[in-house]
Amino acid sequence: MAQLIKLQDYITRYEVDIYRYPNQYIRLKKQQWNTFEAMLKNPVDATIPEVEQLEEEKAGKESKLSSLFKSFKRKDDDVEDLYIGKVSPVVPDMEEEWKLPEIRGKKSPEERKQQFLDSILPLQLKWASSTIREMSHLQKNYRRETLLKYFLQRFPDTFFVMYKPIFLVKQAPVELEIIIITPNEIFAVYYMDEQDESVILGNNDRFWSIREKENERKIVNPTISLNRMGAIIKNILPQYEISLPVTKLLLHPKGYIDIFDGPTDVQVIDKRTYDKWFEKMRENRLPLKHSQLKAAGALLSHCQSTYIDRPEWQ
Q1: Which pTM value belongs to this model?
Q2: 3-state class of 95 per DSSP?
């Protein structure tokens, strides 16, 4: 599941420390997946009524604490002081709330996997809209945003997604579409969310045509937005001595795109080529790269962030 490193103009933990959170996310996800698999193999404990389960957990914790205090009493005063001195304070952002899905009813392995992926989304949105000290007001509709879930849930953990980020270009805010930063390439993506089997006819003009069944209508040429995204990204990277390739991608998985006398530097993926492209993206098994992290940090530093102090810091 790809990592959401920027959501519009929200404050994000990744802009605080781009070298820490990507690895932390991958470790946390792996740990939770192992727990979820264990629950699937032994679902008895997972089906205990919630109140009863909480009481059992509380009793277990009290029992452990009681045993721990008894062991401390058996030690010398100097040793007890040593233990107390080594107690580390709880780091707020390390204690993440990640509620695993309940194991109830009969579901296929794919349905269980989807349950797990859906359980990650609240955590990702939290990371993409807050830091330890600051927070942005997250719109509730992002929890149901189909396109956002598509880009997060269909691609590897090592992919970074910037979703509708707002860049500051000469101090002016500019909203872009979707940027995907992979270990070896950066994609500037324009997603065509049109009807099934629709046909898009493009050229170098300002407006393109879309044929949907018996209707035809005009839309603004999407390569205008793609060219703007590509130019902004390519202008930022050299400032930080980053040489990752940038690909402008026009994506229409449900229909067809035919361009006549149009731009030649835009990669077009439609229904005819989508499956092959999609599998190639998912097969990218490269680990996180230093150049990728550096590029993500550079792009984040040029984004706008609107936030307030969290209540506990006010």
Answers
A1: 0.83
A2: coil
